[in-house]
Design goal:
Blueprint (H helix, E strand, L loop, with lengths): L1 E6 L11 E4 L3 E3 L5 H7 L6 H5 L4 E3 L5 H4 L2 H9 L8 E5 L3 H12 L2 H4 L4 H4 E5 L5 E4 L2 E10 L2 E9 L5 E4 L7 H8 L3 E5 L12 H10 L5 E5 L3 H7 L10 E4 L31 E3 L4 E8 L8 E7 L5 E8 L11 E6 L8 H15 L4 E6 L4 H10 L2 E7 L2 H7 L5 E8 L3
Parallel strand pairs: 3-4, 4-5, 5-6, 10-11, 11-12, 18-19
Antiparallel strand pairs: 1-2, 1-13, 2-3, 7-8, 8-9, 9-10, 14-15, 15-16, 16-17, 17-18, 19-21, 20-21
Helix pairs in contact: 4-5
């Protein structure tokens, strides 16, 4: 028995949407991109050849990142790829109507007209506590709390006797804990880093993983970038296309086997004399302070930016290490008076920050910019930085990084090349 985690993310991540493939024939939450992930599980097979193996699809709820690839699965059924068997579909009430509407929007009329769900599909509507037998599996539907959207989790009794569960999206509720307490393995939505009315969160989730160790294997699912960044230095985080052997006693172990470097501030010697001042062609950088390991501060060099006539016009800093409060190793932060943004001052200052970082054996820096800031975008392009992701910053992180925007562009700058 094997489980393939097709995606660990959600709508707003570079990682694929949370979707799963059980034993090559059961698909859970075919959100957009999941069909492409199927191909990646075996590059020797075409999309339709992978889809041919699917006998059962479970849909937790009707959000795009959980079922929008269904038209392509049904399209293969309509063109005869699945004509020798019926595709079983289980989803919330109204599942047939939802799929019909989606197919009308997603595929051509020619293909849509061929789809006959009554002829080629067995469709079951979930209800709380409903039990369905399928092949050698016994499936129980559990109603969960996803704010104003109906969401059903599924508990699957496997042929080996284990209970494998999928929550889809849910906040903390009695039925969520019922699933945790009655499962051997559970894929649990841990979307955010704070509690909300729609999703469970990664901070409480990691504590739950520790609490239930030895009783239930809890695997984080549906992680936002913020949740993923929080977890990656704390646990062995699941990855897209990870395969789990469900016949093992411990198919997934969340504990890191190697001790993570959570705070390297004390291991870094900041050279204040060597990097005290730089006279560049269009500006002067004067070291204002170095930030060491006191409190939760990052090891960093912080400079005031002056014109060549010694007028203070901004600041710039580069973090050399990181700690538990930071997300990226090597952040560059800056401010500059608006009238100087179109000058080469920032470019020269960034190049100098890269030289400092390289002297500390760093090869990558990260630049956070506002999506609205055209000057910063042009600077990143000029430096040769690549857009890594659009990241949501919580209120806490905005205060920590002194940011005004909820969303930021994160650029990766390879300085060792």
């Amino acid at each position: 028995m094997k489980l393939t985690i097709l995606g660990t993310g959600c709508a707003w991540t570079k990682r694929e949407c949370a979707s799963y493939l059980l034993n090559d024939n059961i698909m859970i939450d075919p959100g957009y991109g999941s069909v492409k992930q199927l191909l990646k599980t075996n590059d020797q097979l075409l999309h339709h050849e992978k889809i041919e193996t699917i006998d059962l699809v479970l849909i937790t709820h009707f959000h795009s990142d959980h079922y929008f690839d269904m038209p392509y699965i049904l399209q293969k059924e309509a063109t005869g790829k699945l004509k020798n068997k019926k595709l079983t579909i289980i989803g919330p009430p109204g599942v047939k109507q939802k799929l019909d509407m989606l197919c009308q929007l997603a595929i051509s009329k020619h293909s849509y007209d061929k789809i006959d769900m009554d002829k080629y599909c067995n469709i079951y509507e979930a209800s709380d506590g409903k039990e369905i037998d399928f092949q050698n599996y016994h499936i129980k539907c559990v109603l969960l709390d996803h704010r104003d959207t109906v969401n059903y989790g599924y508990m699957i009794k496997l042929p080996n006797g284990k209970i494998l569960s999928f929550t889809g999206d849910t906040t903390n509720c009695d039925n969520m804990m019922y699933m945790v307490n009655n499962s051997d393995i559970i894929l649990l939505n841990m979307a955010n880093t704070k509690k909300d009315r729609a999703h469970y969160n990664i901070i409480d989730g990691i504590e739950l993983m520790k609490q239930y160790k030895g009783r239930c294997i809890i695997i984080p699912a549906h992680m936002t970038s913020e949740s993923y960044d929080y977890a990656k230095t704390r646990i062995n985080i699941p990855k897209d296309l990870m395969q789990l052997d469900l016949d093992k006693d411990v198919p997934y172990d969340f504990e890191l086997k190697e001790k993570p470097i959570l705070n390297v501030a004390q291991d870094i010697m900041l050279d204040e004399k060597r990097f005290a001042e730089f006279k560049l062609p269009h500006c002067i950088l004067k070291l204002r302070e170095t930030i060491s390991s006191k409190g939760i501060s990052l090891p960093a060099y912080c400079y005031d930016i002056y014109t060549t006539r010694h007028k203070l016009i901004g600041t710039i800093s580069v973090s050399i290490g990181y700690n538990v409060e930071s997300t990226y190793v090597g952040n560059i932060l800056y401010t500059l008076n608006e009238e100087y943004l179109d000058k080469p001052i920032l470019y020269e200052s960034f190049i100098q920050m890269s030289k400092i970082a390289q002297s500390h054996n760093m090869d990558t820096l990260y630049i956070s910019t506002s999506p609205k800031d055209k000057y910063a975008k042009n600077l990143c392009i000029q430096l040769g930085a690549k857009l890594k992701e659009m990241r949501y910053f919580s209120e806490r992180n905005r205060i920590w990084y002194n940011l005004n925007d909820q969303e930021r562009c994160i650029w990766t700058w390879k300085i060792g090349e």
